[in-house]
């Protein structure tokens, strides 16, 4: 049994490393924009940051489709059901086109109004609108990156999506430098650089998807399968609801912080982006866990399933504990990378020191989310997300900002309370599910 666990740890690490590197590179895309634009001044930072949470909402919605496909396709991989895998791949192509076009049209139609809805200062609304409009144009390519990337990971291949992101990020960094500084295009230059990198990553991810023998589908095989789409929707809809609930919560949360002033909002936005790099390892492990959980389920290997749950949670919490320590120590130097404003750097670093102590709880939360996503049990995550985000973070942030008129520190306490609550509720749900007889019964059901 000990050898099995060592082998499982090795497999998790081998799967997680490319996923972690991919997320780091993806985060670098945000970092490069934030750092380069940040040195143009507080207003430029605020213009880019104003629509960040809307971007998360869009990305979260598309990612939810990928979650459903990963859960179903990894189970098919475990069960060695090649026919079902190819049929799911054909539905993935249809979903990329339909979701990409639909979401893109909606985003472009609302781009003019979003900065005002987000409470952006009049001086930055025009640049915020232009930035969001430009990065929303290649939405179908963004959908291809997220959805096809999930399909590829379902086959336990995390290396090729990583390589795609390496190329896209190199392009983005070079174009950022050229368009922002050499051609003096400022915020608009950053937007074009991001949009072009989305196009390249989408095209390359599709090439990888089509290049995999087990996923390759011909044009004649691409047609809507009502039964499969219904199955996908059962897993995807709660995941979509979770992402929408979470992202809309972030939108409202950011809107409340935005109303506290440009300096406070700039410090908040940069600190949030700076923190991102420290929980990437957790998300990488969570992504690997989802794939392994799905495969174990498809194999009908209950012992392996339970072992993945246990090992994943322990590894993630330990890693996030180490990352929290680093975040505390590097908080001020990190803020200085992204802004030339001393006020913004000091305020943001103080927030990072506070949140550093709660990183293990964040790790616990995302590891268990990965477990439930791999099982296809997305409704559990939705219930916890809805209760905690809106019942704790939003309610108490509203009270802090609008009624009690507190500072940014108290607002971040609300955010921390939300994350701890999610971690504890999800942990309780996982323990109850792991011990229930229902789990054994499910393994008697044909997937």
Write a structural description.
- This protein is an all-alpha fold.
- It has one domain (2-442).
- The chain is built from 18 helices and no strands.
- The two termini are 27 Å apart.
Topology:
Layout: H1 2-38, H2 42-49, H3 52-79, H4 82-110, H5 114-117, H6 125-136, H7 139-154, H8 159-182, H9 186-211, H10 226-258, H11 262-276, H12 280-299, H13 302-338, H14 342-356, H15 359-375, H16 378-403, H17 408-435, H18 437-442
Global outline: globular
Helical content class? over 70%
Low-confidence stretches: none
CA radius of gyration is 21 Å
The count of strands amounts to 0
Number of domains: 1
H/E element order? HHHHHHHHHHHHHHHHHH
Overall pLDDT confidence: 90
> Beta-strand level of the residues, as a percent range?
under 5%
- State the end-to-end distance: 27 Å
The major beta sheet can be summarized as: none
The total count of helices amounts to: 18
Structural class: mainly alpha
In short:
The protein has 447 residues and is mainly α. Helices cover 85% and strands 0% of the residues.
Q: What brief labels describe this structure?
A:
447 residues; mainly alpha; 18 helices
